[in-house]
Amino acid sequence: MHNLLEFLQKYNHWFLFLILEVVSMVLLFQYNSYQGSAWFSTANVVTGKLYEWNSNVETFFSLTKVNQELTQRNVYLEHQVKQLSDSLVSLTKDSSFLKRDQFAMLKSYRLIPAKVVDNSIDKPGNLMTIDKGRAEGIHKDMGVVSGTGVVGIVYIVAEHYSIVIPVLNVKSNISCTIQGRGYFGYLRWKGGSSELAYLEDVPRHAHFKLGDFVVTSGYSAVFPPGIRVGKILHVFNSADGLSYRVQLRLSTDFARLRDVCVIDDAAMKERLEILRAAQDSIKPDGSTGDNN
Description:
The chain is 39% helix and 26% strand.
């Protein structure tokens, strides 16, 4: 307390000066219309700028959440467009029935938003790391998609991170179909460009054209049907000449991929468990695990 009094006594003339300055400014702006209006205008400009900067900062830090929500919404919309297109080709003309059926189907899927934290596109065995894991409900063999198409399949799961085998991995093998044509094949990447892959084993009697879209078939226990994969660019004969080898431009831009969604579907999980049980029950020599 003594030190404070000494400080005030030593610099009392400065405090008196500041008080007089404040009083004079108040009197100047309060009783002079021109100076008051200038002060009011300047204060409004400064306040407006501060609010604008604050809004820009809040918007910047909310972009991550916005991107995740947009990615999840795009996945739903892509799937919805595919399902509605297929339904319109069918015999039914009841649009209300189509709408009810579509939304009932979409409710069966839970999409877990995630962010890509590590990714490679120039190696034969490319892998991808996402920032969600066991704690968020992710497990091995879940499908991963972006807002524009298929990304890959979950391979290894830790508590808060997961490793994904993307389409851009020579060991990736995803069942696909040519949209609206009904012909199936297997999506494989042979290295090289991150924009191109191939649909292998397409039957020779298949009828399709350049520009047709390729989507997931739904025949695996990983992806639901109708998730976009890519667009047909060229058609080649297979090495043995018994099928077609179709070159695709992938819908997903892996070089710029940031936000993805992991598909959590109870029905697909059950199908996968049954498939594994069947595989485990068959011995290498072709006999079953039942000794009776």
